[in-house]
Amino acid sequence: MINLRKKWINAASFLLLAATLLGTSAPGVSAAAKQTPQPETFGIVALGDSVSAGYEPGMTISSTPYGYAERLLEQAWFHGKRAELGNYGILGLKTAGLRQLTAAIKDGTAITADSIQPGIADPRLPSFAAKAEQTKADIAAAKLITITIGGNDVSSLLQQAKDLSDADLQARVQELLAAYTDNVTAALENLRAINPNATIIIADQYQPVPQLYAGQSYAKLMSAAASFTQATDRLAASVTLPGAPVLVAHAASRFAGQEGSLTHIIADSDFHPTQLGYETIAKAFTEEVWGDYRVPASFLTPSASQRPMTIVVNSQELNTPNKPVVRSGQNFLALADVLKAMGAGGKWDNKTSSATIVYGGRTVVITIGSKTILADGRKIVIDTPAFLQKNGKEAKTYLPLAALASGLGFDVEYSAQLRTAFINP
Fold first, then answer.
1. Is there a contact between 142 and 172 (Cβ–Cβ < 8 Å)?
2. 265-320: per-residue pLDDT in tens?
3. Which residues contact 137 (CB under 8 A, 6 or more apart)?
């Protein structure tokens, strides 16, 4: 799967991050990875408009988004998943465009602005078109497909509501809802033709205009948003199947009364979520999948500069007096903490000053002071060796975070926004 979040990270920053977390040479990692098949990946594909794309004012084609989809990826890691994200949100996309886009992906036909949605101006569209086959493969392999769509269809209402009578507004809403239902149903059918079993979650359409800004139109706009939520619920119920659910992420109710802090107001009909807004949308999606939205305990600290690095192992945040240690730009953990969190077995050999860990059919030997570890008898070079550190009266073995992960085949991911490393089976 093409992980767009990772692809948009500056290359130098990514290499530095990889060196910091993995602490292994590329050949060594590849050799170890070939020995044992990797566990199944929880693939996430985000489709739809600028909300899926994570757009905020001032972003450029080289910007790294941090929207709801990127947060959903973090939540997958937080819930113990080996996960990847393919984010294919398109700026300005409408429901008719989503219908055409999914049909083109399904049928393998050319993706162009004219064929998808005339006048669409997302500068990334040519790059999306060039990897249409990969997009189809990502959708086919996905466990979760998320969609935000409809905002560009109804944006005209934000200006028109104040001038329309209640009857005329209701008639216009019903007209838009009919087109919305028809287009989104067709798009879902296209996706089901590619992937019959993925969970699909579509967000309802939140009302972004604050009451202070909307004035007397606020009640009308809230009524229109409620109608869209009802239509989305009916649509999802009509197409959901046993083993292939279509669910609704109810974002609209979370924005009600909080629009001013959750949206950027760019123009009369151009609104986009703030970072707090994207977190709010991410919570709506996450709770449909896993029931709870998690953040590191360190986020209770007032200042981000004071937050220590958090380690989450197999969905559990490590809470131990043996704090992570940074040496030569790499993170080390106390071996006993990792073994306990992963349910791995281990033993210490005083004669050789080495620890042997057994997990998932693999055996890894880590020797204090050695720049190689043995994974099923094969040497893997590491930049910084394991060491002993005295904590109180006991000496604890500290090992490079991802050297162990590489040897045992764990998945190691890092979120700079959360200052958190995730280790999953």
1. no
2. 876 567 899 999 999 999 999 999 999 999 999 887 666 566 788 999 999 999 88
3. 1
Give percent of the chain with pLDDT exceeding 70. Answer: 88
For residue 416, the one-letter residue type is: A
pTM over cut 0.85: yes
Question: Does 347 map to a domain?
Answer: yes
Termini Cα distance of the chain? 19
Calculate the alpha carbon distances from 73 to 10, 30, 100, 187 in Å: 19, 24, 27, 23
Sign of torsion over alpha carbons 190, 196, 200, 205? positive
> Rounded CA gap, 397 and 394, in Å?
10
Residue 326 domain-assigned? Answer: yes
237-267 pLDDT, tens digit per residue, is 999 999 999 999 999 999 999 999 999 987 6
Number of domains in the chain: 2
Task: Determine the structural domain holding residue 74 and report its residue range.
Answer: 39-289
* pLDDT attached to residue 232: 98
Beta carbons within 10 angstroms of residue 121's beta carbon? 10
DSSP state letter for 133: H
What is the number of other CB atoms lying within 10 angstroms of the CB of residue 66? 18
Cα dihedral 231, 232, 234, 238 sign: positive
E strand or H helix at 152: helix 151-154
CATH number at 271 reads 3.40.50.1110
* β-bridge partners, 412: 423
* For residues 129-146, average pLDDT: 96
